[in-house]
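Office hours follow-up: a student asked to see two folded examples consecutively, so here they are.
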Amino acid sequence: MHPLKDELYQRLRTDFTLFDFFQDSGPDGCWYRTLENSQECWANSGLLKLLGYAPSLPGIPEWSQLSDPEETKALDNDLRASSTTKSFTRILHYRHQTGFRLPMQTTLLPVADADGRVVKVLGLVRLLQTGPDALGELYQQNKRLNDILAGSNAGTWEWDVSTDRLTVNTQWKIIAGIETSDTFSGNDWLAYIHPDDRAKSEDIRRKYLSVSAAYECEYRIKSAIDGWIWVIERGRVSQRDANGRSSRVSGTLQDITVRKTAELALITLRNRQEQTNQAARIGTWEIDPVSLSLTWNQVTREIHEVPDEFVPELNSALGFYTDPKSKEAITTAFAKAIETGTPYDLELKITTYTGKEKWVRAIGVAEMSEGRCAWLYGTFQDIHESKMIQVRLRESDERNRIFVEQAPNALAMFDRNMHYIAASQQWLKDYSLKGQSIIGRSHYEIFPEIGESWKKIHQLCMMGAIDKCDEARFVRQNGAVQWIAWEVRPWYIRDGEIGGILMYTADITERKQVQQQLRINEAQLRGAFENSTTGMALVGLRGDWLKVNNSLCKFIGYSAEELLQIRFQDITHPEDLDGDLDLLEELLAGKRDYYRMEKRYIHKQGHTVWALLSVSLIRSAEGQPLHFVSQINDITDEKKLAQLRLAIQDQAYSFIAHELHENFAQTLAATRMFIELSMDGNQDRQTFLQKSLENIETLTQQIQALTQTIAPTTLINEDYFSLIGDLVENYTGQAGMKIRYDFDPDVSSADPATGFHLFRILENQLKSAARRQAQKVSIIISKGQLLHISVSDDGIDHSEHDTELLMLQDDIITRVELVKGKVKKLGRAGDLQILSLDIPC
């Protein structure tokens, strides 16, 4: 027998007050326990049956399994603080074996020791409901409620405002990921709420509980399992005190992390899309075909240059197309898209709000539903600058064509397929093509005898292209269709040899596909990134490439997989890196929204390429930096084209200066001889002829000044004495050649025009040595009152019929004469070929 049970029986035999207490109460169950150790208790079979336990089983559940811990603690404190042993009644909650809490009326009788201290307590329990199946009905009601809550994945809670006690069910603890008892204080719960949400949640409770019976609040809590999670708390006042204040509140708790994560991701995606469009300067627009309401993003508004208060409408938007052709094109395309869903991609001219004319690119895509247009949207891009570049390129082409046609030597321009673009008169004469129309015809059609070996040479020389096509359909060998945009132009290296074809090309296949599949939000972002003819990339905060598009890969020669293994610092030209990093730091510090700069990258093949770089910073919804968006425009061709045009211009000026000098000098000499021979004893005639000679001398000086004026402009900036060193280095080791090069440093202060001709003289002599199979070459340049140049080599003696060697020799003599120098020796001396000359400084 349990000791407390035995003690209770003994008291009933001797204490009639206790016996009457039992008889008057008529309990459904009873329990008896000590205050010192609440787990030291005894419960009769009636109470155990009420709570779903089998009395016949060995062992009795502990008091903590049967009761509410918080209620037990509060009751014990009240009993210790009181000296009375009179009975009193309370509603206490008992825990059924199935888990639900069962409220029962409990009559309590304190038991004191010899000193009058309450040390034990007897409890007699009665069900609040009566009837043969009262307990079962309570259980079924509780079970139905729990089933409903379980199906909704909602946890329940109850808050006693006066005692700040919070009671929760098992599902609530699962959601919160908290290992705790069913009851704890409201202040303890606040510690789990995210600091940024704590004040907001308290304000909502305080506001609504004072004026309303219900509220709901979304906030984050710290889960021991999943970290910070989002929950929604709904509460309702279930009991108020005599003053109308909330005394008991109950409600539910649900996990909404998935929904909130999706909402935050959508916000971040929209922000990222808008910022990417801003960096790429791509505008977007949408039209509801039913209401005809029109929406522009910020970039579209900026392109139109409208004020902040301007509200776009369909009619006002069409009003920007003041050019008749552009207005007709956009009106027709818009109507066709609405009626049939046909997409459009147009280059049009608009007049902005401020009166500026500019070229734009408008793309429209219709979403059709049941044969009707449900939505019309697209992109809008300012292409005025590139359009003007096209105009300037066409003008430049025309100037180049005229230059070629008027050139005094045989010269022609070809496209990538060796079709004639222009040809000089000398070319037509040399190849007996006078009177024939060759422009646009294939070089191989005109000369069918050209063999495969020459065609291979042409192909090797044509490394780029100079022509223009915005969109071209290219069928690959495997049958796949590829769309490309390209520009081609012929170019020449400095020694006059054709170097190849400059080519700018961009794969726009994906962009063409995306034009048919463009969608709002994420689709627009993906299309702008993946299908842009401009290189674009997402770059990490430390410089690592996160995502790159095809244009960027093609521009710098790396595959996407290779780029994702390195950082942009690894392929940036060292001279441009510090400036780039400084601007990135300003972005991170919030000092600027984006930046733009010209910089150089190191191509995978080792050469340098130029780019116009635009960068902006993407931040999270909380404002934290995520990554950079980079727009990289290839401007290498523009840089090279500028150098090419300057080189061609220099060659033309040099030739003209030479021709003027040579032809005029010969004419002058003949005229002077004629005048001198014509002089006789006639004083008047002698005076007249003498005056004519003076006028001719003056004219000679003017012609010489003119030839200096039109000397090549590159001589002003080029350090040809450094280039001579590069020339020697390039020829060293060629065909086993060894070169000794002695250079007086004072020579570098000589006139740049002198340096230019000296460079050509040494280049021609080295070409001659290589052609004559020289093994050893000596070059000595010294400076006194004159520049002295001495070149010797051990090459074999050349044939008098070797035309190329004779041409090189004639060019050397001509250039020495142009700088008023003197050839001291040009020919054989024993086993050596000698070139010795003096040139004025």
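And the second, which I mentioned at the end of office hours:
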Amino acid sequence: MTHATPAPHPHPHPQPQPPAPGQPGSDPGFYPGSDRPAGRSGPGQGFGPSDAMAGGSWAGQPGQPGQPGEPGESGESMEAGGRRARRRGAAPAGSGRARKAGEPRAEDRAGRPLGWRLVVALLLVAGLAGVAGWGFHRVFPAQPLLLALAPAALVPPLVALLTRNRPLWLALALNVVLWFAATVPLYKGVAPGMVKDLANSWQALLTTLLPAQPEPRLLILVHAAVWLAAMAGAETAVRSATRVAAALPAMAAFGLALLLGVDGDGSNLPVAAALVVLTAALAMVRDDRPARWLLAGLPAAALLAGAALVAGQFLPVAAEPYNPRQNAELPPPVRVDSVSPLDRVSAWLQFPDRPLFTVKADKPANWRLAVLDRYDGVRWTSGARFQPTGGRVPAGEWTGAADTVRQSVTIDGLPGGWLPAAERPAEVTGVPGLGVDPSSGALLVSAKPGKGFAYQVSSRVPRPSKEDLVGAVPVHDPALTAFPDGPQEAAFRKLAQQATKGADAPIKQAYRLQKYLRTTASNDPTAPPGHSLKGLEFFLETTHRGTSEQFASTFALMARTLGLPTRVVVGFRPGQQSNGVYRVMSGDVVAWAEVKFEGLGWLPFYPTPGKSGSKDDHDVVSSAIEESERLEGEFTQGGVNKPKPSAKSSTGGSRRTGEGPPLWVIIPAAGAGVLAIYAVVAMALPWWRRRRRRTAAGAEGRVLGAWVQTCDDLGLKDDKALTAEEVVSRHPEAISHHLRPLAEISNFVRYAPTDSTDSTDSAIADQAADEAWRRSDAVRAEVRRSTPLKHRLRRRLLFR
């Protein structure tokens, strides 16, 4: 920031006249009525009176008589001086004493007037807080969010308006009481654990899949953040004269909304644009300009916000923002039920006529219940990390063609907390306390659903093409290919290699293995339950009969010996259909295996044969088996021979290239670039200012530039109330020795400028300008010599 040194005002205020001879500050060679001293010989010799600086008003305007508000001032009226003194917190002119620290101002004692600007400013603060809170629309559904925002944004500005003439502590205390009262409708009663909920809400939101459930224990964070922003902004607007400081708390609340809602649906760019417009309006209202400025300024601010809204969509940071959920610690895997759904298969088959649930859907599908991906040699368990969600389920790896299946499920007698749905759900509604495993898409409800409990699900059923399947490459995940220690591993591997002999692609191996189990063993609902290693070995080598529990488990383990990542899924066949409603009974239970491929995600395989021994009695499985047999036949006949891992990998490579470097590289690089630019600007800007002032047009401009530059070098940029005499007196002799002549030259040039165009006078003026800069350079050198390097660097980096 540079000091503007305006020329003397010719009309409203009289031109300062030099003192009369004999008066303090007079000079024998200065004659009344003259524009310049008689016999001016050159810089430093009779160049203005030696006392001329005593009447200066501030470091940037040496020699201007009188301080604001003092009797006898000539640069401004007493009234204007009083206004400026009040803005600085000083006593008005003529008050007789200065205001003590902490003492209320005169207008505070008389009461702050209720003007339209104050009312409009408080309305804008309420709008800022409300708009900032709306930034949480990516975190919570709209309706409950609005109910939490409305009182939080409106009540604090009203409190600030009513208590504007009262102590601040009273306003804060009233806000606290009203905030507690406003939480009663949020919780629908008094909540003793509200403070604990507030302390834990941010961590709970970081482990929640968005949108979050609109539970009071989570909404309390939004309620408190918006209330605090509105309270801080309103009190700042009422009790200070700042322009935009009242908008800063709302900006902080918006920043919190951005962090917590970074991976939610929708965009916060319109919210940011609205905040820009409201902040600009607040600045114009607080600027004491005429009301017509608002009519011109608001459209300009809206236009700027609209341009930012359009351009913001193309910023790289908007495409890959920082997501704090990636660093949040997820809850550990938990055991959902005391009895695994896979352990229930045999019992359900023994009593096949028990009603479990009904599904109203537009097409039949397998209703997936539980996903089990860990095996310890005795039983399959789930490693799912369930996260709370308001209904959204993260998408899987497959991004290609898919069918959408919409279901309305009604629970009848299904035990446990697992919720059935077709394939991988995309969205679930009607389930309070819903949890979802982002890895598998499995659904879990916190409280066991009772009979008649209903919810809606929208699922995506992938439709990969033949080319996608041929080029499928299994993912590398040791946890999904782990085989328990024991002698059974060698036996399972030997049988798997025999079953897949000649298969030169992973997808072929999976199809051959499926066909092997379907043709070498029979489906017997009366077979003994269990899926331990010894039991499965007995099933493979001796009995050759079992339920889908044994078939799915055996397929998954044999595939793991071939390096295929597998898991077991427990679900149900579509059930009996009537008028678009599928009635699912306990006898419809079925287990199958899935293999994970890059880009495709989990592909299902059905190793369990039909109950008749040759044909499955279920149309979904039958169609899947027919498709797999057709593809396997094409593989054998050479119709589609070679997999295309190279094409797949090249596609993945190009995709990684398009994504650019990881975030942990981008952020430090961007920070280093910003710091480098800042350092260059901080070092170059003072040099540019000094050069501009040294080469200003005219000798008068160069002299005044030397004085302003010297004040900057002395660190007096912000001390505008100092007189020139005070500037000189506060510095040691080594500096004042050069500072005093510079002040005299600057005083004379400012208050007694020559209008002559004589070449001799021009030469003298140029000499005066050169002398002024010589003195300025000397002061600068002395300041640099006496100031430690770290202090000089600090001032330079802070643009002081």
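Two things to take away from it. Confidence is low (pLDDT under 50) at residues 1-111, 613-617, 638-660. The first helix runs from residue 78 to 87.
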